[in-house]
Amino acid sequence: MHWLRTRGRATAPYGLGLIAVLLIPALLNVIPGIAPGYVLYLVSLALIYAIVAIGLGILIGHTGQISLGHAGFFAIGAYASALLTLRLGLPFVVAVLVAGSVSAAIGFLLGLPALRLSGPYLAVATLGFGLAIPQLVVWQSSWTGGSSGLHGLPLASLPLGAFTIVFRTDQDYYYLAAAVLIVLTIFARNVVTSHTGRAFVAIRDSEIAARAMGVDLVRYKTTAFALSALYAGIAGALYAHLLHGISPEDFTVLLSVDFLTMIVLGGLGSIGGALSGALLLTFLQNALTRLPVVHDFKNLYIVVLGVILILTIVFFPQGLAGIARSWRLRRATRTLDRPAGAGQIVELGERSGVR
Amino acid sequence: MTGPVLEITDLTIRFGGLVAVDGLDLRVNAGEIVGLIGPNGAGKTTVFNCISRFYQPDRGTVHFKGRDITRSGSHEIIRFGIARTFQNVELCRSMTALGNLLVGQHVAMRSGVIRDGLRLPGVGADEARATQRADEMLELLGLTGDRDHVVSTLPFGLQKLVELGRALVSDPALLLLDEPTAGADKQEIQGLADLIRRMRDRFDLSVLVVEHDMSFVMGLCDRLYVLDFGRRIAEGAPADVRNDSAVIEAYLGEPELEVTEV
Amino acid sequence: MLSVTPDILTDLPWGQLLVNGLALGSLYALTAFGIVLIFKTTRVITFAQGETAMFSTFVAFTLLTAFQLPFAVAFVLTMLFAGVFGALIERVVIRRISTTTVLNPVIVTVGLSLILLGAAGWIWGYEIRTFPDPVVGPPFHLGTVVVSQLNALIFLVTLVLMTVLFAFFRFSPTGIAMRAVAENRMAAQLMGVSIGRMNALGWGMGTAMGAVTGMLIAPINYLDPSMMGDVALKAFAAAVVGGLTSLPGAVVGGLLLGIVDSVVGFEVPELRNTIAFALIVLVLVVRPGGLLGRHETKKV
Ligand SMILES: Nc1ncnc2c1ncn2[C@@H]1O[C@H](COP(=O)(O)OP(=O)(O)OP(=O)(O)O)[C@@H](O)[C@H]1O
Ligand SMILES: [Mg+2]
Q: Smaller CB count within 10 Å for chain C: N or C?
């Protein structure tokens, strides 16, 4: 299983995560007083968002290309899979794969003009993209269901040789989302720690250096866009089937900002950061709805989002991943008594995922 | 091989009203170390940028090993065998020295996002080979101790050295160096001249170097071109150029560049 | 069928759409002008421009309704408020972040806009309100084209503001200093211009421009925390289409966007944002620096 091998000691958290994934449903069943179904639904949602966050992290964190419109790709994936299963009766698996590919293809296309757009222009253009997608959905109401959306999606299922797994319960779905997330996390990790990932980071650090070293910006920027759109598209497909229905209102600019906040909070350029940011934010959003004192949850949640964004950039530009890193560093310097400077240098080197 | 490695003919580029390079002819023969000197703003870096395709000249051609590269993309240049360093250092600042030397081998490695993502067979071997090659280069440059340091934490002089290493690992035929001595002290400058000559011999390089430090240039280069306001005002062996009246004129009022000092 | 022109095009009330589009475009232009002003002075593209404008418009609403101030007074007071507000944002937040990457300012201003959105909802609630009409009376008629009093006021305010700003940047020492900062920060600093003060001033003026848009568009549309969402997108598109580095570009872009928006809004109202997005991409692919902006060979 050479493709499962990841480098260095940062593997440990992933092992723990895997164990947690397997144990969570069992744990929920023994903890009294909670509804395991609902919690599992929520966790599944968080895992789906984590898929988007990882893809967006590759684009923004590693390649340095901003997107304020990833809800657009998420919507494309969701609508593609919903339409394919609902209207054409295609199997779930095929629908998810096609949805991911369609989203990736559109990501590639958006990457083309993006080549000519630097920082702020790209931010505005992607914002416009994110706003345009739900509008197009409403406009094409004859086959997208317009503003009322598409509902009654069939259950997700996975044919395995002679028999077929059907994902009926929240727990089934949870395992499905977790499995997809795990595969995509490993894939992303492999990409960012390899030749391709190095080219991405080179572009982020210095486009001039990257070009001089032979990195084809057209190829790698469009690859980064397509890859992150692929992730968002697959996640969108899973989302549509988790909810069994979608409508354009699910894909607002606020969702794009949610995705951005996840990776900023987690730490740009860190896959573990994107994961933890997505989980944390989804739970936070849910917890805020439960606060009895807050009547207008939407109100509070967006303020919290804004505060998180600003505080993170002002005080912890490396996000949670950065905090964890400096904490590890402090521990390491205490136990090994090695010079702090040297430690920091090695740790920083890991950040980019590039040795 | 016959013919020059690099041949520039009638190179001209304007920025607005300013003619930064004006009808320049320049050639570098195989194995030569050629210096490109001139006062500040003479257009030296601009010549480099035209060769490495960051700027599009308004007129003239650049041929490398007989091939016209005047219309090539900037990312193709290194594949042809031209590697460069930058006046103000363009490293991948968040990466380690090793990481930068791996980026330097970008075109030598097979690529593909799916291949990398799935860790298909061969990825690990490629990576190991590139790492080994990078380590050898670090060793050669005396940078082994800085291998795992993030380059933005290194002093400027070392950054320049990492940049040199990054250019060298790409296995170029022609090396373009923009002010390699910046950030180095007198002793290091001498060492650098030796290093460049050693690298030339070892890797069969031709070198075009822009430099302000005259003693360095005079000691290192086989031939010099002198630019002033984008025009070539002199060309020849260091000893001849040094006594050229046009050159002395151009450098008047630039005390740091005393040509006569050497 | 001999006619080549589709009926759709010939049937449009072009004159009316043009006038409406220019009025709308003036409003986009004002906000875009603010975005460009802030970008030129501080190199920050602000995604909070719509929300600062919305917040200021609520302030104006309070002055008009709770304090019963005349419109002109409320208008000027709100502009002052927005100016101070913008300068404060620059001082308290923007100055603290590193602007070496474009990412940081984008993220922080997006964060700001969320906070303002939430705060406005908190203070004034989410119900849709009507904003008092600044002017009442019969519309003017130019042939078949109707110009409402409000549109006339919009033209007037825009014209006056643009003239004042033109004179400010042309003749006043402060305006010239601001231009110097925009051209070359280092040189301006060496000449003794206080960069910090100019940054704050740029933010203040830019924010005030947005507030003007808010106060003049609220009577047309409605007043609620999300009132500026679409307007800000159009203003962005205007700024980008005109060229983020060009103040006249913002005006040209704004008017252009207004006309396109008015025509598209008449034909396929569902696609107004989509067209704005398409316009951004189209212009930038053809002219990466925008219509009037500069696109220089990047110095290597
Ligand atoms: N992208 C550009 N846009 C506008 N002007 C430029 C650009 N690049 C270079 N120039 C101008 O061209 C002239 C030559 O610049 P260049 O950097 O080539 O000089 P140089 O000989 O390398 O000087 P130095 O010794 O200071 O490095 C200068 O006047 C410079 O300002
Ligand atoms: Mg130079």
A: N
